[in-house]
Amino acid sequence: MCGIIGYIGKRQAYPILIKGLQRLEYRGYDSAGIALLDNDLLNVYKAKGKVSDLVRFAEQQDVNGTIGIAHTRWATHGEPNQINAHPHCSQSEELAIIHNGIIENYAVLKESLIKHGYTFQSQTDTEVLVQLIDYVKKSNNVDLTKAVQLALNQVVGAYAIAVIEKGNPDVIVAARKGSPLVVGIGDGEFFLASDATPIVEYTNKVVYIGDEEIVTLKRGEDIKIKTIADVVKTPEIQRLELTLSQLEKGGYPHFMLKEIFEQPKTLSDSMRGRLNLEEKEIKLSGFIDNKEKFLNAKRIIITACGTSWHAGLIGKYAIEEFCRIPVEVEYSSEFRYRKPVIHGDDLVIAISQSGETADTLAAVELAKSHGAFIFGICNVVGSSIPRNTNSGCYTHAGPEIGVASTKAFTAQVTVLTMLALLIGKEKGTLSVERYKEIVSELGNIPQKMRSLLDQNDMIAQFAKTFTYAQNFIYLGRGYNYPVALEGALKLKEISYIHAEGYPAAEMKHGPIALISQEMPVVVIAPSAGMYEKVVSNIQEIKARKGRIISIVTEGDTVVTNLSDYYISIPDTEECLVPLLAAIPLQLMAYHIAVVKGCNVDQPRNLAKSVTVE
User: Fold this and answer.
1) 608 catalytic, yes or no?
2) CATH of 250-452, one of 3.40.50.300, 3.40.50.10490, 3.30.420.40, 1.10.3720.10
3) What is the DSSP string of 212-241?
4) Catalytic option among 166, 177, 425, 608
5) pLDDT tens, 266-321?
C-alpha cells in the first residue's frame, strides 16, 4: 500500500524519483523519503506528509547522484512520522531499504537481532528487514544480492523491496512476494516501481517481477533475476500500453472527476472487440477457451473487496437471472480464513482493480488448492491476479488514480454483465431474442452516460445543501441494492460522512428509527424493477419527514413529486440500470466532498492498492 520508485543510469536520479513519487502518491501519502548514492556518500532525506513536504525539506540538501530509491508511505507499523518514514538504514549506515508490505515475523527477527547487538530507531518492520540483510551480509561475507536472498529465506510475509549499498553505486537489488514490482528498461538505465505509472514517460519496455524473485540492476549490465531458492530466471520483456496523457488530469480539478467523466469511453473500451452491435453478439476469449468450465459449473463463487465486491453483487443478480447458476459473493478477507466449502466443479471469479489486492490473491490461491477453476477480472495488465488465475478478462478501464474507484467499478459491472449474457445464451437459459435485446441496449449505455453527465452542474448545486449532514441512508432494491452500497461507500470514502446502504424493504426492520428532518435518504427508484414497492418505501420516509434524494427514470412524475431533489437517468434494461445510477451517486459524493474541502483524490487513511491484509 506504499509507492516504490528507483533509478540507476546516466541521469541525475533526484528529479526522476520525485516525479515518480508524485505519480505514485495515490498509493500512500502519510510520509515520503529518498535515498541517493553519490560515489561513497549515502544521503537519506525523509519527511512526514506528502511528497511536496519532502521536496521542501530537500531544497537545501545535497541531491546529487545517478542512483537512488524513494518511497511514499501508507502506515502499517508505526505512526506516520519522519522516523518511521522510508528509506530505513542499517545500523552500520551502509544499507538503505524501501519496502511495501508486512513482515509478519518481524518481532522474532528483531529479538534475535537485538541479541546480536543491533539497536532500532523506528517502530517499523522494515527497519528489522534492513538490519537482517546487514547482519546476513556481514556474517556470511557475501555480496548484496546474496545477502538479500539469504535474508528473505528467513522472512514470513509480503514484500516489495529495493536496497542500495554505500560504496556500491552501481547496483540496486530488489525483490517481491505478494506485492507488485516492475522494472523499466531504458537506454543504459533501469527504472524500478510499484506500478508502471512513473515509468511510462521514460520507456515502454518493462519486466514484471514474479513472486519470490530477486532482481539485480547493475549499471552497464543486463537485468538479472533469480528466485530466493537460487533458480535463475529469464526476464520476459513486455511492452506497455499505458500512455502519459492517461496519467494527467486533462484540465479537470481532480482525477476523480476526470475518471467519472471518462466512463462512457471506459465502457466502450471494455466492450471493444467483445460486443458486436451489428450481429448483436458477445465474444469473450476467456469464456470461449474454457466454455465447458462455465457451462458445467454447479456453483459460482465471486470473491472481491470493497467496490469490487459491490460489482460482484451486481454480477450475482445477472448470472442467477440469465444463467440459473447459484452464485455466492464473498469478501475475500473472510473467504480466505473461514474454511469455506470449495468443490472441484466450482467456478471462482476473482475481481480486483489493481490485480494486487492481498486478500483476493490469497482467496485465489485457496480456491486453486481445492481444484476450482479461477477466472480473474482485473484492470492492470501484468498484475498478480491475471498471472495466478486460469483465465480471465481485463476491464480496460485505463489507469485509475483517484483512490475512490469510479470507472473501474462500472467497467467491472460491464464485464460481468457480458459474461452473464454469454453464459446464459450458451446454456439456453436466456432466449436468443432476449439476449440480443440486452446486448443491443448495452451498446447504447456509453451514449446514455454522456447525456447523464450533462447534469453535473445541477448535482453540484444541490450537493451544497447536504454538507451539513452527519449521516446518510442509501436505499435500492434488486440490482440497485448493490448500487446503494456503492453510493454509500463513495460518500464515506471521500467526504467522511457516515453513510449506509440497505435494501429498501429492510428499512422498516430497524433503520427507519433513524429517519428525521436531519437524515438525507438517497433512493434509487428507476421505473424498471420493483417500482411500486420502492414508492411505498419512499412514502414511509416522507411520513417521518425524511429528506429524499431520488434517482429516477426520465419522465417520472410520482417519485419526483415525493422527492426534495431528484436526478433523472435514461430509461434502460433493469440489469443495466446500475451502470447509469452509479454516476449521479459518484458525482454527488464528489461535490459534497469538494464543498467540505476534503482531498477527494487522496482521502485520509486510504490507499489505492491494498497489498497488505
Assistant:
1) yes
2) 3.40.50.10490
3) TEEEEEETTS--EEEETT--EE----EE--
4) 608
5) 999 999 989 999 899 999 998 988 999 999 999 999 999 999 999 999 999 999 99
